Amino acid sequence: MFKNVAEARQLVSELVPGLQAFEGVEKALCPPFTDLMAVSALLEGTDIGLGAQNMHWETSGAFTGEISPSMVAELCRFVIIGHSERRTYFGETDETVNKKIKAAFSYGIIPIVCIGETLEEYEAGKTKDVVSRQLRRGLAEINDLVRLAGPASLVVAYEPVWAIGTGKPSTPEGAAQVIREMIRPVLAELFDADVAQATRVLYGGSVNGKNAREYFTQTEIDGGLVGGASLKVADFTQIVQAAAF
After folding, report:
1. HSE-up (13 A, CA, CB side) for residue 207
2. 44 is annotated as an active-site residue
3. Is it the case that residue 164 has pLDDT exceeding 90?
4. Of 42, 43, 139, 228, which is most buried with the most CB atoms under 10 A?
5. What's the whole-model pTM score?
6. Which of 89, 79, 84, 85 lies closest to 54 in space, CA to CA?
7. Which domains does the chain possess?
8. pLDDT tens digits, residue range 171-213?
9. How far apart are CA 16 and CA 13, in angstroms?
10. Cβ neighbour number for residue 189 with a 10 Å cutoff
11. Given 83, 92, 117, 220, which residue is catalytic?
12. 74 catalytic, yes or no?
């Protein structure tokens, strides 16, 4: 929840030239709903995608304050679903995540599905239980949708809650291990081995310009879901550069 329209225009205007310089890496910005129109105009003609931070699963109706998938689809290619802050502060559950993912597929929006354990769960050794449950319930009954649309239609973001905004990120090796040993096996179980390997799995949690390359050299990590560092032009540009090389 950062940047009003004027501030978003300023930030994106400064970001675009630097991001455009790097080819061979997919880039997307996910601003607040109120900024989507303005940012969409600034990204027109670029290779930078646009995403929403959340959405409801119903097409329309008496859901005051919510944004429907049809509204998101007018402007966005991506939507973040199940972010840890939505789960922690706004009652998001694996079941509502599942409804939103199905709605995203119905409208051709690529869901960026967030999963991850809290500090308490991490210290209790429950990482595997948590991420496996979130994947199985969140991705339930979408096998045919993924097969029809292809593995590029789904993105998974592993964001250990204890690492978000704390300055204490998971180690690159630790994050890669979770993806390799816990996330991709469940994806293979839900879909098949080929889809599991082809599905992009991002890491999110205190990624910045200084540590990004360490994460991206891990073959299991396909990119980053960037939080605070995306508000800093130099930092975010450096992260994209690390992904490009």
Report:
1. 29
2. no
3. no
4. 139
5. 0.96
6. 79
7. 5-244 (3.20.20.70)
8. 999 999 999 999 999 999 999 999 999 999 999 999 999 999 9
9. 6
10. 13
11. 83
12. no
Q: How many helices (H) and strands (E) does the chain have?
A: 13, 7
Task: For residue 27, list its beta bridge partners.
Answer: 48
Candidates 56, 92, 117, 159; catalytic one: 159
Give the DSSP letter string of 2-63.
---HHHHHHHHHHHHHHHHT--SS-EEE---GGGHHHHHHHHTTSSEEEEES---SSSSSS-
Instruction: Name residue 68's amino acid.
Output: S
**Tokens read off for 126:** 């429950």
Tokens 């390359």 belong to which residue? 213
Count CA within 13 A, CB hemisphere, residue 168.
Answer: 6
Contact 69, 103 (CB under 8 A): yes
Mean pLDDT value of segment 92-106: 98
Q: What is the pLDDT of residue 4?
A: 98
